Amino acid sequence: MQSRIQYGMVGGGEGAFIGEIHWMAARLDNHYELVAGAFSSEAERSRRSAKTLGISADRSYADFQQMAEKEQARKDGIEAVVIVTPNHLHLRIAEIFLKAGIHVICDKPLSATLEEGQAFAEFARKSDKIFALTYNYSGYPMVRHARALIAEAQLGDIRTVQIEYAQDWLSEKLEDSGHKQAAWRTDPEQGGEGGLLGDIGTHAFHLSCFVSGLQPTEILADLNHFVEGRLLDDNAHILLRFSGGAKGMLWVSQVAPGNENGLRLRIYGSKAGLEWSQENPNYLKFSPLGEPSKILGRGSPELAESAAKVTRTPPGHPEGYIECFANIYSEIAQAIYAAREGKPVPQDVLFPDLDDGIAGMIFIDAALKSSRNAGKWVQLDVN
Q: What is the DSSP letter of 353?
């Protein structure tokens, strides 16, 4: 039995939705213990957050630089850090903690710009520490099973990949109302120029590649901001050409009334098709050509080993967002345990990493170039 991973958090203070999700997911399997944090750039808010989370006063820090220095100097210093700040701060913080010999778990996207991400990647690849990125939807059991079906060629040659991620929470100019999340996510200085592509588009892009096993070679994008006065795009229509000849369509919107968190993936091949929805994640529709469609349920005995591995409860007991996030954290923990012993990451451990982060930034950059050039096809190299 390995001792729990002592970790700290940068960002994620009171009122921050994603910070709470991260610490709940990290705690679920008892692999991690939150012991330190610089939870906000506002000192008092950070102190209140630390107190609420049971962090001792001497490990509640005014800023992330101080946190890295102090924790590196402690005999019982943190082994990993979780970064849940606005996008433009991700890599500045990550570099400091990697230099301090601390593993990094970072919220998506990797960075605010591709150039920043590529410069960081050159440094990070020289580090012997783990860098993980939380594209958490890849942690769902039925997503893992869909990936296994395609890897086993049960869909045949992949022909089309259809993915959408639709929300409605930015249908009005919420950023002018004092809503903190809306304010930074629609600010190019903090969120990067990608707008909704950085916020949710890279989730959809990563999921399509993760499940299909394909890499895009070209994209054509039409990006828009429909809300008057908004600085960043809030809707995107994107065509994709994948390796192997498959075609794809990606629609991402944060201005689609009636959609809460509508992430939906459909993939069709020469032998079968499949369909999965994040809002009903325990089921996967599998449709062999010429046969009745099958609804495969999470926890059923026919699922792939990769799906069974991340299934927690018997059939009929729903698993959802927190659990899929926890699956990613659990797999990262296995990598950290291996690192403790100087061993490579086990082959059956699967979590998004630096390469996935760079691929997401290449996608955003290419989409911006395509849209700004009247929707011309742009080559995309994510290898």
A: B
- pLDDT, one tens digit per residue, over 29-85 is 999 999 999 998 888 888 899 999 999 999 999 899 999 999 999 999 999 999 999
Q: Is 112 exposed, middle or buried (0-12, 13-18, 19+ CB in 10 A)?
A: buried
Q: Is residue 69 within 8 Å of 100, Cβ to Cβ?
A: yes
Q: How far is residue 262 from each of residues 46, 61, 278, 295, measured CA to CA in Å? A: 33, 37, 7, 19
Angle (deg, nearest 10), helices 354-372 and 114-124: 160
Distance CA 126, CA 33 (A): 27
Per-residue confidence (pLDDT) for residue 383, from 0 to 100: 58
As beta bridge partners, residue 240 has 219, 248
Q: Helix, strand or coil for residue 159?
A: strand
Please answer whether residues 116 and 91 qualify as being in contact, where contact means their C-beta atoms are separated by less than 8 angstroms.
Answer: yes
Is 206:360 a contact under the CB 8 Å cutoff?
Answer: yes
Two tokens at 82?
């979780």
Instruction: Give the C-alpha separation, 230 to 121, whole Å.
Output: 31
| Distance between CA atoms of residues 173 and 150, nearest Å | 41
- Residues with Cβ within 8 Å of 54's Cβ and at least 6 positions away in sequence, in order, are none
- Say if CB 84 and CB 22 are below 8 A apart: yes
Which tens digits make up the pLDDT trace of 177-222? Answer: 989 899 999 999 999 999 999 999 999 999 999 999 999 999 999 9
DSSP state of 243: G
Q: Is 288 exposed, middle or buried (0-12, 13-18, 19+ CB in 10 A)?
A: middle
